[in-house]
Specification:
By secondary structure, this protein is an alpha+beta fold. It folds into three domains: 120 residues, Sandwich (Jelly Rolls); 214 residues; 143 residues, Alpha-Beta Plaits, CATH 3.30.70.270. The chain contains 16 helices and 15 strands. The strands form four sheets. It has a five-stranded antiparallel β-sheet with strand order 2-3-8-5-6, with no helix packed on it. Strands 1-9-4-7 form a four-stranded antiparallel β-sheet. It has a four-stranded antiparallel β-sheet with strand order 13-14-12-15, with helices on both faces. Helix 2 packs antiparallel against helix 3. The chain starts with 18 loop residues before the first strand and ends with a helix.
Amino acid sequence: MGVNEDVNVYNPRNIEGVTTIENYNVDYIHDDTAPANIRKVYSWTIETSEMTEKCLRFYTSHHYVDVFIDGELVYSIHTDEDNMFGDSISSVWTNVHLYPKDEGKEIRVILTPVYDSVINNSVEFVYGTLYEMLLQELKAELIDMSLAVLAIIVGVIILGYHVYAYFSKNFKNINALYLGIVSMILGVWRLMDLRFTSMLFDNFLAMGYVANGLLFLICPPIIFHFKTDLKEKETKVLDFVLFVSISVAVYAFGCQVLGIADLRANLYLTHIVMILTIVAIVLNIIQYKDYFIRKDFIHPTLIMVISLTAGTLLDLLLFYTTNDTVGMVFTLSAFLLHALYQFYNNIREMNYKANVDPLTGLMNKRRWESLLKSTKSDKPIGIVVIDINNLKYINDTFGHEAGDVIIYRLAHIMKSILPLHCHVCRWGGDEFVIMMEDCTQETIDKYVHNIQAGVDTYNRLKKPQSISFATGSAITSEFKKITLSELFKIADERMLENKKEWKLQQKS
């Protein structure tokens, strides 16, 4: 506001808007030589041409176009007889330049539908400059374009992140990787299918085939995503639908390459596969309902299925009602929400696995070493080392599962006794470390005593294997200047001395 406070703008001429042609005649002419046996003829008279140069523009899907001015052919678009990509020219903007000398002349537009399904498609004829029409389409499709671009960006991020994590061996869960693929497919499909995008590029034929072709590839990664989520559970119905979806894609692309039928002509097949995919996923959810719906927890995949089902059915209803893809944003919106949520969960899980011991739920050695380097405080910091006695004997005699029970129980006792501000780590197989900030030696002794009391209570329950541990501690206030790594070593040495005393007691 401050920058523009003293700025005056003088603009007596507003940008002229797009003028829609409303008064025209339309005739349907039967023609056995036409692909759908019919041609639509639109005609009107050019009443005024106030600018030195204007354009007549209109958008058609799967129509041949011929434009005449006073009987003279000024524009035509058809496929060649030897066109390997089939009969359709996909969706295209027709652009016809008009001049002042054309005023009062008759315009006749002949549209020849390629498919029966597009015969009743409505066409809007407009006058205006390219800039005006671009602006109009951008406003009309801004939401669609924003979602498409966002889907591509999300797909690139998910794919890049998971490929890096997978090959760096930090994370082996590729569940969200499939979501990245689907996000890319949906985003590129939607972008290639927009009217605004087709105004920017001349190769509209390639754009149309890319858009239609991608729809045949969307179901397999969705199925793989769901199968990965179910892990090793039986998925015969999903496997069958996966086979059908791949077969339909191969069939559709084969028909396209061999010139038997366009992708657009077989588009209904991929819609059937989409519905079959939804049905198969729903059946698996019913089969494994206890996995997806638990007490106080609803699996995120269930939310995805509900939202995607609603979105897909709404989009298909819109498509078959209007025979147009404009406004088909429900599926894309629902998927984006789930993809972002699933990606967040995968990052959180990746971080959890990188820093947490899976058996005990405590921080692991990697996280502990990072904590030693990053923790700085002017107040006393104490470190306690706890090592389970005789764990090797338990593992050798009763098996490693019995040893894991001992490790888990001791970890559980420590977590239930120590306050939240204490950092507890499983350092090795049978060794634990605890960091306490702003503490005294009395505080450390109290917590160690409470842990021993918890262990004694557990042992009194007459478990097959009792718990015994050695401990050592050190606190920064004992020393003038010491690093936490050095403090940890001192605590570990004191634990080893305590373990030697315990072993001597056992011999005596």
